[in-house]
Amino acid sequence: MNQFSLIKGKSQEISPWPHIMEFSKMKIQSVKADSFLMKENVGMRFMFVIEGKYYWTIENQTFTVFPNDLVIVFPGQSFGSLTGSFEVGTFVSLSLDIEFLDNSELKLGDWSNITDSEQRLISQILFQKDLSIIPNFKHFGELVLKIESEMFANEIAYKTRINNLLDDIWIWVARQMSKNENQGRIFPQTFHRLDQMLRENLAHPWTVEEMAAIIGLGTTTFTEKVKTFSGFPPLNYLINLRISEAIRLLKNSDRSLTDIALDTGFYSSQHFSTTFKKLTGYTPGHFRKNN
Question: What does the pLDDT look like over 43-58, one tens digit per residue?
């Protein structure tokens, strides 16, 4: 098993990706004093354990970490080992230089193909879940193995491919966080959190598959639960939220009908008008005039 330690500014191998601060695979065969002291973390760090058992501390809370576990450390969090040393084993460390707007909204940069609305959604999941460890996350190990292979093979389009794999990491971390968080959670609480996310991102082109993935359910089970709980299939429930917000904007603002349509997730003013009249009996213009 090859070891490597690539550090931004010191390792030519990662220079094509300025957003990668560190990418390393370490095999610890003997404990060395002062090899892992507590310090403030820089960047968004992902630590994936391949072999061994570790006792790592994040913000004064110590976690026992096993093979296939992923540890996530946010910028500014204290991270290390209370013993000051790594235990025997093997792990991968990936640290990314990213920006958090207002300390809570993820901003990946121009290298990423994840849309702004999806980045906001991922941010909400990262911060509301408050998870430091994702247990038994084997797929993350597969992703970092692919990054390693691409980085050292230098085949055609490897720079783009690695950025795509980094996008995959964010997407799968968010999905796995939702899945783990919602296992065993009663559905009304889960649905309430989804409802909040939908209301805060009405302009996003939501699909049933995406909504189901966020709360960690298959599409069929998700659809059945939403319909039982709310009385509506997921997309109908979403349309009701959009119309409710449109009503509020029509009453309390002078924004154009087109702007209101786009802000509430309708793809055109005609689509908005048709749907609004179907559900309320009025066209948006008529409703605004009467109110």
Answer: 999 999 999 888 899 9
DSSP 8-state symbol, 99: E
Looking at per-residue confidence, does 5 or 228 come out higher?
A: 5
Q: Do 47 and 82 touch, CB atoms closer than 8 A?
A: no
pLDDT digits (tens, 9 = 90+) for 180-226: 655 545 567 778 778 888 998 999 999 998 888 777 778 898 898 88
Find out whether 57 and 13 touch, Cβ atoms under 8 Å: no
Token digits of residue 151 = 């980085």
Residue 27 burial (CB count, 10 A): 14
How far apart are the C-alpha atoms of 71 and 93, rounded to whole Å? 9
Tokens at residue 6, please?
Answer: 């690539």
Alpha-carbon distance of 54 to 79, in angstroms, equals 13
DSSP per position, 172-238: HHHHHHHHHHHTT--HHHHHHHHHHHHHHTTTS---HHHHHHHTT--HHHHHHHHHHHHSS-HHHHH
